[in-house]
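Entry 12.
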Amino acid sequence: MVEELVAAGVAAACAGAVYAMAAARVVRQYERGVVFRLGRLRSAVRGPGFTMIVPFVDRLHKVNMQIVTMPVPAQDGITRDNVTVRVDAVIYFKVVDAAEAVVQVEDYRFAVSQMAQTSLRSIIGKSDLDDLLSNREKLNQGLELMIDSPAIGWGVQIDRVEIKDVSLPETMKRSMARQAEADRERRARVINADAELQASKKLAEAAGVMSDQPAALQLRLLQTVVAVAAEKNSTLVLPFPVELLRFLERATPGDAGRAAEAAVHQLSELDGRTWPAQAQEQAQDQSRTQERTPTPERVAEQEAP
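Predicted 3D structure (tokens):
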């Protein structure tokens, strides 16, 4: 009798252990459990932790509540301005109602993926190329609204949608590069023209100042020659202008002396020598040549009795 009771207790313990093992379930922190009893949804969604179900009667479906990152395959489309592009995106979503995600749609991941692809094609057809390249925030918001509208009935919430890359044909890339190059060239020409205008105004003012003092032009020429000769990387040939000698002849003694000294100083800086004697001799030779040159006034004085 005792042996029969012990055997019955052991059998009951084994049956209880088997039942517990069949009924015990563990739901993780980021999951929720949806229970179907004989095919009917139980209203209570099992939270994280240890839970029990009726073996062979209940079925537990675990739903991941984490944010899912899903890449949207690249879609080919034609923009509103008739440009062929290839656009890919990424979508972030999560399940907010585990029961709806299991009951309302067969595979919510596949449904969200297909909806994202069709919405991306629709956005491409409604947008211009400039919007796809520079105004992506607005397109992302529109794409998010298009996907989120049907996803709400599936117990899914769309957190964010981002357009990752826009691929253009090679011909369009070359055209855009030429356009950018032409625009930069235009701006460069405008800047150069503005600089030339400002420089011309300053040169006109400088010419007005130099016109009052003719010697300033010759001195400026000599200063330019000195600046060029300071490089010492080329041979410089300096013709001595006859107009300078004529100017020295016409000038007053005081002005001629100062101009001659300035000219000699500039020439001495040019090649490291001082030419006061040579400059004086050239000026004297020029004066004697002009004195010997017959003029109508001198001929009239010689012929007069």
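Annotation: The first strand starts at residue 24 and ends at 27. The chain is about 60% helix and 20% strand.
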